[in-house]
Amino acid sequence: MLENQVIFFSRALLCSCSTRVPAAGIKQEIEEASETSKRDRSHLESTLKLNEDKPADDFSGVLQRLRKIYHSSIKPLEQSYRYNELRQHEITDGEITSKPMVLFLGPWSVGKSSMINYLLGLDDTPYQLYTGAEPTTSEFTVIMHGPKLKTIEGIVMAADSARSFSPLEKFGQNFLEKLIGIEVPHKLLERVTFVDTPGIIENRKQQERGYPFNDVCQWFIDRADLIFVVFDPTKLDVGLELEMLFRQLKGRESQIRIILNKADSLATQELMRVYGALFWSLAPLINVTEPPRVYVSSFWPHEYQPETHQDLFLKEEISLLEDLNQVIENRMENKIAFIRQHAIRVRIHALLVDRYLQTYKDKMTFFSDGELVFRDIVEDPDKFFIFKTILAKTNVSKFDLPNREAYKDFFGINPITSFKLLSQQCSYMGGCFLEKIEKAITRELPDLLGSIGLGKKPSILSCDITGCGETPKNRYRKP
């Protein structure tokens, strides 16, 4: 598949223009141009629907119902079996109601900040993100909607429980000093949030950043709806930090988009070579059948350099904007699917802890040393058929099972005797935790997702009107 993309793009380059100036000539023109004209933004505004006056869809009813399903059916089991200590992923109300998040990753000075400036039209304004040829962005910058231009410190963002960034406080005060928020009154930010990240510098040790950079990146990766990994023709090498980043992106291939930026700085032949070199560098890191989509263009406000593939670059840019708009349009479907995926993981974790506990109780005798018995179980769970029992009886996919090694650390800080069996997690009024989460996975969340697909007005799904336990009516059924 990687080879097919290289061949297809190469043909597009060869066919898009008959004559090209040498690369040296293009670079000389770039250096000599003191003032460049601004690019037309009409395609950007039309593709992202920034000129439409119709009000945004009101999903407050759906979000209210989703929040209630999470708190009543998922969170009790999540807290009882301390799932957050296994996955380090605690869902807050702010995260449930948050807008889609677009994350920008990549080496330093490849144009991540310039791309955000271009998408939002922040160039030549007091709040444009600082750009330059040297490493410029040393902070995690969150660009979000607000009534007026305003900068928010990281400690304020973490302290505000209404936002989705309060869990970032666990990464320490050094990190919060490197977190900054910018509120901008822009129509696009009413529907999406951008996150700009520090560029990857391979010759700098991670410890020198003063905070766990990879852990922070993982936090944003886990919550991003779309991930742009940006490169430019001069920074295609893959070092240890970039390799670690792609390991963290495993399982999120559907959200990843690769961007080869500053493409108009190269002539045809050089661009073909750079495109091939990019795939050569990334091929060992993206071990999937279908590689991520690659966009080749120059994402900044200035006109494309003359005698370059302007039509091709414009089409690539429009395709990327359509991709971004699709994520925005599907934000509620993605949110519900994310909560359901989280519920599945919580259920599997609870079943495994229950199986560990049941095995421990079965092996304990009056004269047994509890610590030695459980150590034997944790060291070799396959000997006691812990995972095989879960697969055989509970309709769990083997591909969803957590790593066995993770439970050694988990039970190292959480004694097995501190948990209750699932059969004991029931009450007369509240029901059983396991039954409630299974109902949410198999009925409530799919029904909520289906109600959006059926075209219902989300506002009528308010819990005050229909009741959150009620199944939405089938609009296609004749009365």
UniProtKB/TrEMBL annotation:
Q: Which GO terms describe its cellular component?
A: sarcoplasmic reticulum lumen; sarcoplasmic reticulum membrane
Matching Pfam families: Dynamin_N, EHD_N
Q: Which Gene3D superfamilies match?
A: 1.10.268.20, P-loop containing nucleotide triphosphate hydrolases (3.40.50.300)
Q: Where in the cell is it found?
A: Sarcoplasmic reticulum lumen; Sarcoplasmic reticulum membrane
Q: Which domain of life is it from?
A: Eukaryota
Q: Name one GO molecular function term.
A: GTP binding
Q: Which residues form the Dynamin-type G domain?
A: 96-337
Fetch the CDD domains from UniProt.
EHD
InterPro entries noted in UniProt: Dynamin_N, EHD_N, G_DYNAMIN_dom, P-loop_NTPase, TRAFAC_Dynamin-like_GTPase
Extract the signal peptide range.
none
Q: Which keywords describe this protein according to UniProt?
A: Glycoprotein, Membrane, Sarcoplasmic reticulum, Signal
Topology with respect to the bilayer: Peripheral membrane protein
State the protein's name: Sarcalumenin
